[in-house]
Amino acid sequence: MLPDIKHAIRLQILDDRITVLTKEIAALPKHIAEIEKKLEGHLRRLEADKAALSANQKDRKKMETDIQTNEQKISKLKGQMNDAKNNEQYQAFQHEIGFCQQEIARCEERILVLMGASEPLDQNVKAAEVALAAEKKDVDAEKKRMQERTVADRQEIEKLKGERVGIVAQMTPKIASEYERIRKGRAGVAIAEAVNGRCSKCNIMLRPQFLQDLKLGHSIMICESCRRMLYYNAPESFDDLVPQSVRDTAPGR
Ligand SMILES: [Zn+2]
């Protein structure tokens, strides 16, 4: 295999990795924003439940005050009733007392409704507070992990770029720039392997003569369909894998 092709294959491996890392770095802030948004949503729901609970308690307090006020009114009216001058006055006091009693009954009923509603709210708030504290801890840990990941990715990219410079320096300048040109115009892929007589990238069947020349490996060959550099990896021969001593005693030899 031509050294330029070997170098181009290595460049492609490095460039693929750089692309993956670059995409990862770009995706991390979006991931962080998503988990923060989810946390924010849970926080808002907790605040809404807390507000509803506090409104419920305020309402109950008001009902209790109303009951007290009406009870005081009743005891005052009862005192006045004793001094009633005539039947008409007496009935008027009685009527007013009845009204206050109705008010008390209405408040008591409302308190029961509020108490029923506050119980699940109270449980929600308590559970949400616990869950939210755990979630916040998770989000903070995830953010830290993402930041560390970004730093590590950047370091790896720098290392890969360093290796890349070294490889390009060893290549024929024209081939190196050709690699670059094809890579930019072909979705980041400049070189493809010929597998089973086809270009593995565009899948075109290579002409027999073309494949023959490619296998010889005397020159840089470009896929006639996708215009990428092609290389051919000869399968390792069985003979190379079996030790000489075994081959000598193998049947048919
Ligand atoms: Zn092709």
Describe the structure.
This protein is mainly α. Helix content is 77%, strand content 5%. It is built from 6 helices and 4 strands; from the N terminus they run H-H-H-E-E-H-E-E-H-H. A 4-stranded mixed β-sheet has the order 2-1-4-3. The radius of gyration is 42 Å and the shape is rod-shaped. Zinc ion (ZN) binds next to loops.
Major β-sheet annotation: 4 strands, mixed
Q: C-alpha Rg, in Å?
A: 42 Å
Spatial strand sequence of the major β-sheet: 2-1-4-3
Number of strands: 4
Please give the CATH class of the largest domain. Answer: Mainly Alpha
Low-pLDDT stretches are: none
Structural class: mainly alpha
Distinct small molecules: zinc ion
How far apart are the termini? Answer: 31 Å
Count the domains.
2
Q: Percent helix among the residues? A: over 70%
Question: What brief labels describe this structure?
Answer:
253 residues; mainly alpha; Helix Hairpins; four-stranded mixed β-sheet; 6 helices; 4 strands; 5% strand; binds zinc ion
Itemize the secondary structure elements and their pairings.
Blueprint: H1 3-82, H2 87-170, H3 173-185, E1 191-195, E2 198-199, H4 208-216, E3 221-222, E4 229-231, H5 238-241, H6 244-249
Parallel strand pairs: 1-4
Antiparallel strand pairs: 1-2, 3-4
Helix pairs in contact: 1-2
